[in-house]
Design goal:
Length: 325
């Protein structure tokens, strides 16, 4: 008989506090071809919330365990005792005591990276690196506009943009989040709940607009971004935290000579797994040089998973929320 292991599981689609329970689950060691990890930290991501609500592009079978970003200690085999960063595949996510992960998605960690920060170095930073460098070809000296700059995805993009030598304009909702973006080093910050970011971007760029727009909010924010993107600019479609998926009129892209660039980082796991390892090495190098430093807005017990996920939906978090056993 296998060991008794517990995990948060989503049993029906809805709000996390209504649909998640802390269950006994099968021993992850049953997945013989995978590494079994003791979960040491789980970083939450907005997609975890969307998965609970049934609003994410992936629809795992019920019941499933969310959590795609974990730091864990390898429990068996030649790598036993090694602390690693991993992205478990659904439906067996990381909001659990133990998780099984394919070795291809296990990344090494240096000893001096604190556990909570390490947990925040995977999804948002990989997305930022691939989005800014590979998809948008961001160049030093260009202007980067990062929406929701105080959030998980946004805070990583601000740091990566600055590390790339870009001038960074950030938007955020409310004075506290504006201050978070300033503290991260953004050159210009706009409270987009009360100010028109289009005017601020045009003013800050002498009318030229932003060369790259990194948009994880969508809806009206995407619509307005089209009005302040530069000639030959690139709008990276990262997410729809605002809840509405905007349409991109192709005539507007034509007359202004800009590109709308889609980004789904998770697809690289199947299409180009090697890129994930190369990106991780680049990120560790930036960490080592002090150029990136994951912003951990809250460290909470794993038992708080449902309420912590609800806070993401209420715009009630900054940076990453990390859950610890
Ligand atoms: N493309 C990819 O590969 C990829 C990878 C990871 C994440 N994503 C997507 O990126 C987005 C952000 O993820 P995240 O983990 O950074 O989330 P997060 O930390 O919760 O940040 C999201 C931010 O969006 C802003 N926002 C605007 N309208 C909102 C609303 N109605 N509800 C909630 N937030 C709203 C909030 O900032 P303000 O209060 O400042 O407006 C919030 O802090 C999500 O849509 C996620 O699915 C995409």
């Amino acid at each position: 008989m296998g060991v008794r292991v517990r995990a948060w599981r989503v049993h029906a689609l809805g709000e996390p506090q209504d649909v998640m329970t802390w269950d006994d689950v099968p021993d992850p060691a049953e997945h013989a071809d995978m590494l079994r990890l003791r979960v040491d930290a789980v970083a939450l991501n907005f997609p975890d919330l969307l998965l609970c609500r049934g609003l994410y592009q992936e629809k795992p079978p019920l019941p499933f365990t969310p959590g795609v970003e974990v730091v864990g200690t390898v429990l068996d085999g030649p790598r036993a005792g090694e602390r690693v960063l991993a992205s478990p595949a659904l439906p067996h996510g990381g909001l659990a005591e133990q998780v099984a992960v394919a070795e291809a998605f296990v990344l090494p960690l240096p000893d001096d990276l604190p556990v909570a920060k390490a947990a925040g170095l995977l999804v948002t930073y990989q997305t930022g690196w691939v989005g800014l460098h590979r998809r948008a070809q961001l160049q030093a000296g260009e202007t980067l506009l990062v929406h929701a700059g105080a959030g998980g995805v946004g805070s990583a993009a601000i740091q990566l943009g600055l590390a790339a030598g870009a001038r960074v304009i950030a938007t955020a909702g409310g004075p506290d989040k504006v201050q978070v973006c300033r503290d991260l080093g953004a050159d210009v910050v706009v409270d987009y709940l009360v100010e028109d970011f289009v005017a601020v971007v045009k003013d800050a760029t002498e009318g030229r607009g932003a060369d790259v727009v990194y948009d994880s909010v969508g809806g009206d924010v995407f619509d307005k971004s089209r009005r302040c993107v530069a000639f030959e600019g690139r709008i990276v479609v990262v997410g729809f935290a605002g809840g509405r998926i905007a349409d991109a009129p192709t005539n507007h892209a034509l007359v202004k000579n800009y590109s709308v660039v889609g980004l789904h980082w998770g697809l690289y796991r199947t299409h180009q797994p090697q890129l994930i390892h190369e990106t991780h090495a680049a990120l560790l190098e930036l960490w080592g040089r002090g150029l990136i430093d994951p912003l951990i807005g809250a460290e909470l017990p794993l038992s708080d998973a449902p309420s912590a996920l609800a806070r993401l939906g209420d715009r009630g978090t900054v940076g990453k929320v990390v859950l610890l056993p």
